[in-house]
Design a protein that fits this description.
mainly alpha, two-stranded antiparallel ribbon, 306 residues
């Protein structure tokens, strides 16, 4: 394991222990605000790690990958509201349903190349938003209100759930980076025709990569739905989430095990800082800072040390 990965593991350990000092100092620190910012950063980290499997290691940009975020959100919402499912089974269901949908679509989508694939996923996202907005059991355009969680670790449960999904996504990226499966994905990314000529079943490996991305993205969507307690099509099929995910991945570094974490935390904390200081101009200021970061760091934050 590389030194940067050990440092990241140490940081994950600190994040896991953070609720304990915050609970002791909640009268002197804005613990709720700190947890909200970190929860948002961990949510984005999960999405970036998921996209890193498909784009970073396989070379396929799913501009509409956030489709599975919406599917996971609605699965968790329907399971909780209509069937009274507890939070953990509903989250598992959100990941499984998103993965099954990804697995069913992969044989079609993964035959497309380059920008055709990217545009097809974006069309899927827009189509799913319209379908969900016109179905009765999804609440239509009115959306769904989820039950508010009351119970064990009530004040910290969603922070810990976001942490668990992000850490799982990190471990998944570590596995992909070091395994034979990951080497096959990298071969596809570098030269798909050459990989196929060497006996790599490219469609199968790409489909598994697409399914893994769908699963992690769906899990993150499920936690988000329970956290925010209200979802509707514009909020969970929002193209802005896709844009933030891609920007964070480019900032951190494609196809690396540490870059997605660095990019997500950097972008989320920078966004929060700019929002608080430049309320009227935060969009312009944030866009300019992102462009400068990408221009000055073409290989991402992980490329600085090389």
């Amino acid at each position: 394991m590389e030194r940067s990965e050990k440092l990241l593991l140490s940081f994950f350990a600190l994040l896991l222990l953070l609720p304990f000092p915050l609970s002791l100092l909640e009268n002197s620190l804005p613990s709720g605000y700190i947890l909200r910012i970190l929860s948002s950063a961990l949510l984005l980290t999960s999405l970036v790690f998921a996209q890193n499997i498909l784009l970073g290691y396989t070379g396929y940009p799913a501009f509409g990958g956030i489709t599975f975020f919406g599917v996971g959100s609605y699965t968790a919402g329907i399971l909780s509201k209509e069937f009274g499912a507890p939070i953990l089974p509903s989250l598992l269901g959100s990941g499984i349903v998103a993965a099954l949908m990804g697995f069913a679509l992969a044989p079609v989508f993964m035959r497309l190349k380059s920008h055709y694939f990217a545009i097809a996923t974006l069309a899927l996202q827009l189509a799913m938003a319209e379908v969900v907005a016109n179905l009765e059991f999804t609440g239509g355009s009115y959306g769904i209100n989820l039950p508010i969680y009351r119970g064990f670790l009530e004040g910290y449960i969603f922070y810990l759930l976001f942490f668990a999904v992000a850490f799982f996504a990190f471990l998944l990226n570590l596995y992909v980076d070091r395994s034979v499966f990951g080497y096959a994905l990298k071969a596809i990314r570098e030269d798909e025709i050459a990989a196929e000529s060497l006996g790599v079943n490219t469609l199968l490996f790409k489909s598994v990569s697409f399914t893994l991305m769908s699963f992690v993205t769906g899990l993150a969507g499920g936690v988000y739905a329970h956290w925010i307690t209200y979802i509707d099509p514009p909020s969970v099929f929002d193209p802005v989430i896709s844009v933030k995910t891609f920007v964070a991945l480019l900032l951190g570094g494609l196809g690396t095990t540490v870059g997605p974490f660095l990019g997500a935390f950097f972008l989320e904390l920078l966004s929060e800082l700019v929002w608080s200081r430049f309320l009227e101009l935060h969009g312009i200021v944030l866009g300019a800072l992102i462009m400068l970061s990408v221009l000055l760091l073409p290989r991402g934050l992980t490329g600085v040390r090389k």
